[in-house]
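Bug report

Summary: structure tokens for dITP/XTP pyrophosphatase differ between web form and batch submission.
Environment: batch mode, default settings.
Steps: 1) Submit the sequence below via batch. 2) Compare with the web form result.

Sequence submitted:
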Amino acid sequence: MIRVVIGSRNKKKLKEMVALLGDLNLDLTDLTPYPDAPEVEETADTFVGNAALKATQLAPVLGAWVIGEDSGLCVPALGGAPGVYSARYAGTHGDDQANNDKLLREMAALTDADRSAYYVSTAVLSDPTGKVVASAEGRCHGTIVAERRGAGGFGYDPLFLVPEHGKTFGELAPEVKQQMSHRAKAFAELRPVLERLARGESLA
């Protein structure tokens, strides 16, 4: 069975990936089995650039197929912020509470259409030599509410309202989010390539 590593130590990302791709004949894991794996600096100014950095730098070191994934929230009225800085918007990487607090402050004076936002997820698949063989992007559009709603999800999920459900990602059941999220759409686009990999077909 071919191992495919998602280049992250975020257990919630791994959980979503397994939920979306776990039926394939692949050994899916994150970086947990690789404690010495390097931390890849996200120096690109685009999501696809950062995803490619993770995939191409980690694959040769691990000797495995790697999916580099980068995602974030974009608010057009804020010039696209937080964007690629979503995880460290308030300064400390992964501090969801501080990031949410900053976003609420930045958007305090915004109303109606100016509160529209979208999540982006870009996934890049690299072969074990570090060569990119596929990439995909998914988006999910919504609105930023004025205060947190729900305790589910992670990142900006308690603030991200999905209009067709009238609930935030923080309020929606995980299985509902997984059907429509930006990450679900990106992995769905990548899935045909992974199906070929699972069948042992060449991706050259």
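Above is the batch result. After comparison, the two runs are identical; trailing whitespace caused the diff. The chain has a mean pLDDT of 94. The helical segments are 11-21, 47-62, 96-106, 174-180, 182-198.
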